[in-house]
Fold this sequence. Notes:
Layout: H1 3-7, E1 9-19, E2 24-29, H2 35-40, E3 42-46, E4 52-63, E5 66-71, H3 77-81, E6 87-91, H4 105-108, E7 112-115, E8 120-129, E9 134-140, E10 143-148, E11 154-158, E12 163-166
Parallel strand pairs: 7-12
Antiparallel strand pairs: 1-2, 1-6, 2-5, 3-4, 3-6, 4-5, 7-8, 8-9, 9-10, 11-12
Amino acid sequence: MSKKGLRDLIVIGHVIRAHGLTGLLRIVSYAQSRETFLKAGSVFLKTGQSELHEAKVESIRPHRSWYLLRLSGLDSVEQVEIFEGAEILIRKDSLVKPDEDEFFWYELLGLAVYLTTGEYLGVLKEIFPTGSNDVYVVENQGKEFLIPAIHQVVKEIDIPQKLMVISPMKGLLDL
């Protein structure tokens, strides 16, 4: 697949290891639901720098804190062992577009973050979910700021301009 083609893909999980003897993959999913895998129809398993293996999704089901994924054409433990640690990707265009004030993580990562005063805060480098809301990790010259992804703080997100404007709550940026 070309570099352009790789840009059309998004990581939605990774393979932990084979599960059982019949070709099931034990995976960690980054997607909000298993429906993302089913709606995509097929996934790409990335094992190396650019080695991709495309396979049709046959089924996915929860198992403890992971998921078990069955892919077409993979019927034995020997066939799936080579995918241990592989990233799982899907085509971006297979994702259901979120509501107007919701964004995919890949759209937010790399945004320049500014305060409502116009002061530059840093670049959004990482996002992690919590029980109630996501938290944005904004980095600037080795300093990290943890910004709650709530309407009281995040005032504007402009994907085409690649920027986010926040109004920090009292004490949020104090160290």
